[in-house]
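Hi team,

Filling in the usual template for the complex we talked about on Friday. All components are listed, including any nucleic acid strands or ligand strings, so the model treats them as one assembly.

SUBMITTER: L.P.
PURPOSE: interface mapping
COMPONENTS: two
RESIDUES: 641
SEQUENCES:
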Amino acid sequence: MAAHSDIVRQDLKTQRRLTLPSVAVIFLFGLVPLLIVMAYSFMKPAVYGGVEPELSLEAYVSFLFQRDLFDDTLVFSADYLLIFLRTALFAMVATLTCLLIGFPTAYYMATRPESQRNRWVLLITIPFWSNLLVRTIAILFIIRDDGPINAGLMALGIIDAPLPILFSNTAIVAGLFYSFLPFMILPIYSSIERFDFQLVEAGYDLYARRWQVLRHIILPIAKPGIITGSVLVFIPAFGAYVTPLILGGGNHMMIGDLIALQFRAARNWPLGAAFSMILMAFVLILLILQIRKNPREALHG
Amino acid sequence: MKRILIAAAAIALAPLAAHAEGKLNIFNWGEYTNPELLKRFSETYDVEVAIDTYDSNETMLAKVQAGASGYDIVVPSDYMVAIMIEEGLLAQVEPNTMENFKNVKEGLVDLYFDPGRHYTVPWQVGNTGFAVNSKAYDGNINTWSILFDTPEALKGRINVLDDMTAVINAAARYLNIPRCTSDREQLRQISDLLVAAKPNWRSFSYDGLTLLSTGSVDVSMLWNGATYKARTEDVDSLVYAYPAEGLEGFVDNVAILKDAQNVDNAKLFMNFIMAPENAALISEFAKYESGIKGVDAYLPADFAAAPELNTPAGVTPEFVPPCSQEVTAMYNKIWTNLRR
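RESULT (copied from the run log):
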């Protein structure tokens, strides 16, 4: 008995030692830069970019308040907050669209014969063979004024001038939706895949209508997948930079652009760092709420 | 597997085996470097040249500031040269003592950002205005009102550069307000003008050429040489505007980074591009005016006659030094408010 627990302990020790490299990598390339960003956010901007090592809360204050352009008093300003809220809205609409399209897709995949399913999973992952930037530019080609959508609609005589789809909010949301759809489909698929569909038959045998079957049998099974999928779509959509930059034409900033602007033309690194920290805090709060609400289900699937 | 690894290693190591005197890593704007020029330099001095590109001075600065960029040569515009010298990022290599320095145009030696040329030599000289597709609009285009008080036919068909300083300074010119003003009333006027104009704009992008050539916009803020290039190679109905209210001039300059690894090759390159026959190659490709005397003999005949390169009498492109941090902060507020 004692020998056995020794072996278990030995195993644990080995396991811990084996995780050391990955922990070190996370610490060095994840935590350390994060700490630097955090430190920067509490400093003062240097004249041409960079920071002065001097403690200052100005960056965080200016998130909600602005020294008035014209008389220097500190007044409430919703500029940055609005950009955060718009970003959250875009990310939410993208997440919902992903769910609406992704759930039936995942359901369809999970109900195929087992021998075919891997083929479907492969099809879903094909977009990942190319880079996000390439995929975003591909969308740009499709929706721009002389792209196939407008050309097609005009050839059919439905419209006579190209629809200005490119550089609109619709284009941004569509781009986010397309970029992150697989993150929604795959977790939902994996949560329904193992489901025993005899339970659905049992439901019908007990006179449940289709809607009731969906609501009381399938949805509860798919719920962990839906939650994971939503989190996986929402978070990258919230911090997206490439998509709004390319498809939005810079008309409506998302947080990603706002942060980039501070590090470049605006030459205010502390403000950019503070925005990054606020963005991260926002995401962390969402995750914690999620875990508290669904302690067991969250992030499974 | 092992065999694949060995093959991969062999491929990875192959360039090392090729003989080269040395290397030169250039970081320049996109669509700006004639491959012929690099080839000629590479063959003359037996140097292996690598090039990366950027789309704005700020992008380049951020990368260089982060340190260990690995580049030897960068090509900052005038105001960015001033910033980079002040930040101690450029090497003082005294190009004014180089053999070919005598070829630099007199007017470009004593400019505010590097008086006497102790750090940099001119690469190309141009200005920032806008281009209009004459198929879409045939009225008078030589005024900033095209952007700021847009005629009906062009509403929603305009791209402006995603360049805070260039756009705000253009608005200041339209309102006859000095550049980098810190007067709050004037800043408010600029801000109001921009906010009122924005609904008529389609996008903020550096990629105006693509937008014009794909018909996504009919007007784009653009540089004169880029317009020339696009007119001759792509959209022949483009016309470059010379706004009566004035426009911004720029000089892009070759500079050597302080942490450059291949300083000797970089100096060779500096001297090399001040020779007229080589400077001509730059202009032939990028379509901007050269900062070097005597290039015309090496350029195609239509070059000297191009309307994009012949600023009309009465219009003098203005070089604007970088605004103070205080003014930049206010520009930033105006810009964020505009783009929110």
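MY TAKE: The mean pLDDT of chain A is 88. The two ends of chain A are 36 Å apart (CA to CA).

Thanks, L.
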